[in-house]
Structure formats: C-alpha cells, structure tokens
Description:
about 30% helix; 12 helices; about 350 residues; single chain; 8-stranded mixed sheet; 5-stranded mixed sheet
Amino acid sequence: MTLSRRTLLGTAAAAAGLSKAALAQKPLPASRPVAVSSSNGLRAVAEAVKRMQAGQDPLDSAIAGVNIVEDDPNDMTVGYGGVPNEECVVQLDACVMHGPTARAGAVASLEGVKNPSRVAKLVMESTDHVLLVGPGARHFATMNGFPVENLLTEKARKVWLFWKQNLSDKDKWLEPDPEHYDPDVKAFIDEFGWDEFRKPQRGGTIHLSAVDARGDLAGCTSTSGLFFKMPGRVGDSPIIGAGCFTDNEVGSAGSTGRGEANILVSGGHLTVEFMRQGKHPRDACLMTLERIARTTREKRLLSAPGKPNFSIAFYAVNKQGQYGGASMYALGDTGKRRQFAVADASGARKEETAFLFEGRI
Length: 361
C-alpha cells in the first residue's frame, strides 16, 4: 500500500510530515521536572511532579501518580473497576521502566491486584525476569504480600451483563428494553458509545512518562485492556518497547489505544529513537503514528486507504523536559479535540494533542 503525504495529512505542511495542529504549536521552553500522561492522568501527573520536586525517584513518582487512577473505580479503563474480559474477569497489565538503571518490569493478565504497576516494579527489582503473566504473576504478587482483591465493581458487572445480553438476537439472552436501561449502563454508553458493544475495539489505559530535575527519566503504563477481551489477551501496555520505553540518555514514551497496532511497530521504542535523532517529542509521536498508518493494511482495520479505523495516541518527554502528545485522529468519541495531561512548574493541565488525521474515526 502506497500512501501519499496528501492522503496522510491533507495539509500544505505535508512535506514536513506534520499535522496542522503540530505546526500551530510552538515548542515551549523546557523545564524540569515534567510528567506527561494520557488525558485520564491529570491528577497522576500532578502527583508525579510534586514527588519529583520533593526529590523522589522519577519511577517511584510515576507509579504513585498512576496508582491514583488504578485506585479510582470511576475510571473503567484501569485497575479497580476496569471493564472485565468476555468471561467477566478483570485482568490487568502494566509495565515500568527506570532510566538510570535501564531496568524494566511488567505483569500481564494479572488478577486480584488493583495496582499492577506496583507488582511490575517488584518484578524489576527482585527478579531476573522482565515479564510475569497470568497465574505466575498472581503467585508472585501473593508471595510479596498482595492480597486477592475483588476488582469487579457493580457498575462494571452491569456493563458486562448488558454487553452479554446484546451480543446476539439468536441466543437465550433477552435484549434489555432501551426505555429501562440501568443508569450505570446508560452512563457508560454516553461516555464510550453504543458501537463499543457491537465491535469492542475500545479500551483504555494510562501511560505516564516523567523526567526529574536532574534529567533522569522513567515510564509507567497500566491498563485493564480492551473491553470484553478474550481471556489472556495481552496488549501493548506490559510490552517493553511498545506500551512504554525509556532511555535515560534520550527520553521516555508510551501509548494508549489499540495495542495490537502498537506492538507491530514497537511504538514506544520507535518514538524514543525518533527523539534520539533530534525530533521534538511531539513530532516523534506523530512520526510513529504515521508509521502505524502506513503499515496498517488489513481491510477490516481501515476506514479508507491509509486511514486506520481505530484510536491510538502517544505521549513523550525528552531529557531536556520538552514534551508532546499526538493522536491518530483530532477528535475523540464526543467530538471534542483529543487531549493529554502534563504537569511542570506551571502546574497540571490538559493540552490538545497533535494529530495525524482531521476529524474522528
């Protein structure tokens, strides 16, 4: 498949490989410490920067920020309250990477622990391994004092049951009456859209990359994965080099969105390599998205030639404290501009992502 720059970006800036949103944003002076995250991480980046300002290690700071989201039952994409798999079991994935030591740890398909990021850090610190999965990850968590917790909230159970009832009009489940939808289910549909029950490609994640005042870097990614996924499905979030990658000489990056697409290009690593070439973090994120768009060729994953029909976004910070975020499409599910979270000496805030394609999926 051959893609023209006009097809990819549709602007006069195409020759530079950047979107209009990217060109409109002039790089701000760098300041450290800095934390950058997906849009659900506003409190997370604030906590991470607060801790780094107090002298804490960037990875400890990043994990403390991510724990806020993992603990929040109202965020149905991460940790406690995450949307379960197709068997109504919440399985979590997470990874961490520490720039100063160049070490990493990860867990996948972990059950009964609301903070998989903390278990991932223990894998890094206390084992000769990088990734533990399934029952092995659960056993490791138990040996380290993590009790078995029920991560399935009543709201998530209702959402799963509604999805189950609407899978087919030929099974034994009766579809609920639209006039009597449960309020929790209606709220979920309003937030994520009805299509998520028909073609469940939607999921959610938090990624957080941080750089401290000394220029030391760290990254952390945590997720409950695709909504109603197959049991044992593992996306990009616990894969070092995909959902997260950190190089203390260069920067840190990670992603949210369709993990399968990210795994195929090792997007976290690729973004850091673009930064190594001197690209601004925002531009590095866009270049990774462009790579994904060029290499997505299955018809079922395309809305038009060269235009993926899924969401994915990248977030990055470099050693100097420059940061950026970019998404495949400019608009989110609600029709509003996609955003990411960032915190530095000016405080925590949301900014609009750069984007590869105008509009929404």
